[in-house]
Amino acid sequence: MMGGHHAISGTAAWMALAGSVQVLGHPIGLGLWDLDSGQVISGAVVATGAALLPDVDHPSATISRSAGGFTKAIARTVSSFAGHRGATHTLLAVAVFTGLAMLVNTVDWALRLPVLGEVQTGAALLVGAMCAFGTRTLKMVDGLLLPWIVGIVAALMIAVIAPDPAFWLPAAVAVGCVTHLVGDLLTTDGIPFPTWPLVAKPPKGLASDVWQRSGDVALPILGDAGSKREWLLCTVLTAYAAITMLTSLFASPNALLAISTSS
Ligand SMILES: [Zn+2]
Fold it and tell me: Which residues surround ligand 1, an ion (CB under 5 A)?
């Protein structure tokens, strides 16, 4: 699946699981967790960027180019050890990314800023990075510096509208990463066996597009990455993400207040 499609499917998946406001009298999401609209919107921003994290094993992916030589060097290192669609495309990697988010989230390094009050730096940096990855990949902003400026502004706004990120932040990272795996699972190349690094390969003669000779698995209903079917699915997901985000935004007076005071 292409980078932008991963990003928008991360947004849509988060809104489907966490969204709880109504459109035309119908709930727009499952509302699985007890989150207010500010936390739902903030989680959507994070899930959008987190849905790109597994592709840090690909040096030419947008996420790998998002902070110039720094992220390129990380991507080259990960790629040389894990290859593309290897270790970072596993449930183990989802657990590691989520665990790192929980760790960063617990860093008690509060900054007291004028107007905004106390901001937890660890959480703000994580939110800023995820927002920078997402906005650049979705081509909402261009260049090397602008996505990071947008990311910092978003992180500060989110510190106001969703100041307690203990649950929604790591949850959004997990949802974003899992959505990436599902997206790649639906393409021809698939992803590593679910229990990786324990890989079960199919017995001789039983290898197929679904359970491949290498042990990779796929449900290739989208065909090759970037197919017309993938574009069609992601057009629907983009519409869903836009409607649910806007509805949640207008249901959150704090979010509107944060936007109006920052502009
Ligand atoms: Zn991928």
Answer: 54-55, 184
Contact 21, 247 (CB under 8 A): yes
Q: What is the residue range of 35's domain? A: 3-197+204-262
Instruction: Count the domains in the chain.
Output: 1
Count Cα neighbours of 188 within 13 Å in the Cβ-side half-sphere: 6
Residue 50 Cα to ligand 1 middle (Å): 12
- Model pTM score: 0.90
Say how many Å lie between the CA of residue 49 and the centre of ligand 1: 13
Q: How far is the CA of 95 from the centre of ligand 1 (A)?
A: 16
Q: How far is the CA of 80 from the centre of ligand 1 (A)?
A: 16
pLDDT digits (tens, 9 = 90+) for 150-168: 999 988 888 888 888 889 9
The residues near 256 (Cβ < 8 Å, ≥ 6 apart) are 249, 250
Neighbours of 112 (CB within 10 A): 8
Residue 222: both structure tokens together:
């989208």
pLDDT in tens, 101-144: 999 888 878 888 877 778 888 889 999 999 998 998 888 888 88
Which token pair is 202? 């199919």
